[in-house]
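Worked example 3 (structure in, sequence out).
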């Protein structure tokens, strides 16, 4: 298999030159990365007409799960769309404020209530625990829609990287369990396939990067624990789902120069093959998480604007 790699967007390449990169994750490195503070809430709310409420809901096993609920301060408290956000971090790091600037743009743009979930991380939490935590948060939103001013027919699940994979798993769960209704799923460079065996995963092996094949193996090994390949549920590794019909309208974007490119393309293709509605964008020269790391880059601004435009059209028709 070729080890040639697509070139990076020139502007992104110049920005990335100043970022320390690595090729592998280890338990010691993970422990160090987890010590970095989360995004200060004050900076998120500065200059933004939004209010923040913290909620704790019980997981399926009774453990407490924290939700951050961002509500437009000017909202009339009725009938707003809701974006339910699942953060990235390879299933092993990050928190409910990670990459939250992405959905907060949708609060600003069309008055969406944004809810972000603090799902439990691997390797401490394994198997279906992270996706089950996220599903419990979705149930809370549906049950409290009137209280938080949300239209229950316009709930969107969204996430980046691991959060994109969790959003896809939540959408599968909601479909198979028959509730709650989901209007759309927005999957940003989603982590969908534990098998890690695509051409793009091999292209980004053995070289420093933002997220490499080796780092991906670490993340999946952490969340799968003792599960064998035959035991991995599709809700954890959504690419395993045999049936991708009856899913909500789907938006998937990814970069041409990243590990998840091929599994993301395949997921969109299989939704189309099942008769579903999906829009796919592969941003030439984009590396993993480029628009979250460098939103000021021209390609990032274009990717965000395109994503927001799709979601605005979807919500208008919902």
């Amino acid at each position: 298999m070729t080890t040639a790699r697509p070139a990076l967007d020139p502007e992104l390449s110049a920005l990335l030159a100043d970022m320390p990169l690595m090729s592998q994750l280890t338990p010691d490195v993970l422990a160090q990365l987890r010590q970095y503070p989360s995004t200060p809430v004050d900076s998120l709310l500065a200059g933004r007409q939004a209010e923040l409420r913290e909620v704790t809901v019980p997981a399926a096993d009774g453990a407490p799960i924290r939700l951050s609920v961002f509500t437009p301060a000017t909202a009339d408290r009725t009938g707003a769309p809701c974006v339910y956000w699942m953060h990235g971090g390879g299933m092993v790091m990050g928190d409910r404020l990670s990459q939250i600037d992405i959905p907060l743009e949708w609060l600003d743009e069309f008055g969406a209530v944004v809810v972000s979930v603090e799902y439990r991380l691997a390797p401490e939490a394994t198997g279906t625990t992270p996706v089950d935590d996220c599903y419990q948060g979705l149930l809370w939103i549906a049950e409290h829609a009137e209280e938080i001013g949300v239209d229950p027919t316009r709930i969107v699940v969204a996430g980046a990287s691991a959060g994109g994979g969790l959003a896809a798993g939540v959408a599968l769960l909601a479909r198979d369990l028959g509730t709650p209704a989901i209007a759309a799923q927005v999957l940003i460079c989603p982590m969908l396939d534990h098998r890690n065996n695509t051409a793009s995963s091999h292209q980004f092996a053995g070289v420093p990067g933002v997220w490499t094949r080796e780092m991906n193996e670490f993340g999946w090994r952490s969340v799968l624990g003792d599960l064998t390949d035959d035991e991995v549920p599709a809700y954890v590794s959504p690419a395993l789902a045999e049936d991708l019909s009856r899913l909500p309208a789907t938006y998937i974007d990814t970069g041409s120069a990243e590990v998840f490119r091929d599994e993301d393309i395949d997921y969109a293709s299989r939704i189309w093959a099942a008769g579903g509605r999906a829009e796919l964008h592969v941003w030439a020269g984009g590396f993993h998480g480029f628009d979250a790391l460098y939103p000021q880059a021209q390609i990032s601004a274009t990717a965000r604007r395109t994503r927001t435009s799709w979601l605005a059209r979807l919500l208008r028709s919902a």
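Notes: Residues 298-317 form the longest helix (20 residues). The CA atoms of residues 205 and 213 lie 5 Å apart.
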